[in-house]
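hey so u asked for the seq, here:
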Amino acid sequence: MNQNNIELLAPAGSYEGFEAALGAGADAVYVGGTMFGARAYAQNFNEEELLRAIDVAHIHGRKLYLTVNTLLKNKELNEHLVSYLEPYYNAGLDAVIVQDMGVFSLLKREFPKLHLHASTQMTVTGPEGMKFLAEQGATRVVAARELSLQELSRMHEACPIEIEAFVHGALCYSYSGQCLMSSLLGGRSGNRGRCAQPCRLPYQVKNFRAKEYGKGEFCPLSLKDICTIEILPEIIEAGVTSLKIEGRMKQPAYTAGVTDMYRKYLDFLFEKGPANYHVTEKDKKYLLDLFNRGGSCTGYYQMGNGPQMMAFTNEKKTGEVFLETKQLKEKITGELHLVPGSPVLLHVSCQGEDAYECVGEVQYAKSQPVTEERVRQQMDKLGNTSFIWEKLEIYMEDSVFVPMKTLNEARHQALENLKEKLLRKYRRNVGDERVKRIAEETPAKIRDVVIHDNVPRNKEEYIPVYVSCENEDASEVLCQKTGIQGIYLPYALMEKHLQTGLDNGKEMYLSLPHITRENPPEGYMEQVKKWLEAGLSGFLVRNLESYSALAQMGLADKCVLDHSLYTWNDEAIRFWKNQGILRNTVPLELNEKELRHRENTGSEMIVYGRLPLMHSAQCVRKNTFGCNGQEERLVLKDRYDKEFPVVCYCRPWKMGNTKAAESCYNIIYNSLPYGLLKEADRVKELGVSSVRLAFTIESREETERIVEDFVAAYHGSQVSHEYEFTKGHFKRGAE
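ran it, structure tokens below
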């Protein structure tokens, strides 16, 4: 266990928080600027503060990371991102934390020396996703918060890049980056840093077939904060190199208190070793008193899920804790020479660097000579600098006079010179790098950036209709229904209906798990290979794990990316196009106007379905009534009497002969289906290559009726039925 390889990473929502984090012993600090951070409601840093923070961190030998971990629209990416980051890159910003593959691709090209950390919102759940991001140029992966110690260990063994993991603070109920609950219910997108936390609100819960709701109103989606200080040795042993504290929305005193405590125990661990590591009850209570929601837990590191991790309340508690923040100071030495008839000469040293300053002129005193005490007093005025005198030698003769203004000038300028020397190794010049890069690019190396205009379809023009389906009864109907181009089915349904679909001229695609945390069950891939030989067209891919595994098998060109692999901007579309995928799925949070400015050729658009509000490693059934291992449905009812279906995915691979998986998950769906039925002509104008109907909990009869009406609408005919649909974000979008 090498102490030099372990980083304590603290949050800062303001410059005061940044100073508090450094003063408490953080090795690195992550912050948000004025744009593109996932905590839009934090105070955050203006440009001057951020540039200063970069310099201060580097003077103390620490690092500063900037959050650019939201999804960006075309206009933001093209007009603002590069100019926003350029001054920070030039100043030596250590890394950016990124969610969007379009942002990732652009930054890798424009800022080649900048480290890219893959955000937890990329939902990296295993070695394959981690290896894929490493191949693209990521230097670090922030692991999904739902992973166990064993899973982190496997990732570490499989891939050499750094793993960052959360060790303290709030947990999202949803897999980070998979949550649409805030945006669909209130228009405030978590993917844009504006989450309204509807998961913390009270709901009632019942089994789908039950007549009455169970426990009454409580908070079934509200998790406790994590506190892992007792298992730090195990987390480090698993291969985590950056220990991340959550809390950019918290006050500086909270940052200072939590960081100081983790610093204390990290130092204790490295001094005494894992065998002698223990945390006192007093210190555990101190962390709880700083902030807690119904206590705390060690998160998913030691358990898959369960009621022990739940707060079941939105009550926030703090105890009587006195907190004092400290400002970190770097020790310097110096020599001050005051010789009559000569300039004031100041020599300062720090970290092996020397700086000098000569100003003014020292005079013989005519009446009141300056004393050494007075000179030292003046030189001690280091104010809000990053320095403190360890030793200052003053060489001066008797009966000399020098204005205090001159001493101030010498001190100020010498420290500025020292600072620039200390920071010299961090400075960059992106302008020079860009000129060099362009000069070195040959026509063969220059990326194809030509984007063809979207080609709107006529109202009467045919547009291919695809369907995805999760239930048995409905899938039977779909395989024989006319007007359907292709069908996405999970394994168990594909096993039953592949041949029927092929016989009816359908393209057949295997729907892979929404969340992948383990290898496919025995026999899974062998059967998939047989299906490919029989005519299987490809795969509906929901995560990086699945995509990376298929790409390694040479099957990238058979991958249809679902909406969870975000393509918000044309840069992301180009990135995935260069990977050789078959097509992507239009994101669910862009409005019609924004979609008109997106490259939609090669994109499929969902026009019907119960939109998933969130995917969660927690289980409402288990936490409320106990686990029965059955893939059943529950219902959440909110304070407005809206009912949200919850489906238990106990066997994510959907092989009928497998037992319930440890990495099971819930999907919470919206209360109303999303449907762009009357908007068919407007969808056609977007130039998408195809549309999709996504069936999850619908009955056979509902499925049949909806298919008929949507096929009619998108093939230019009249619709027979009226429906109550939400338009999702098609009209209003998300901010």
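Residues 443-452 have pLDDT under 50 and may be disordered. DSSP finds 22 helices and 30 strands in the chain.
lmk if thats what u needed
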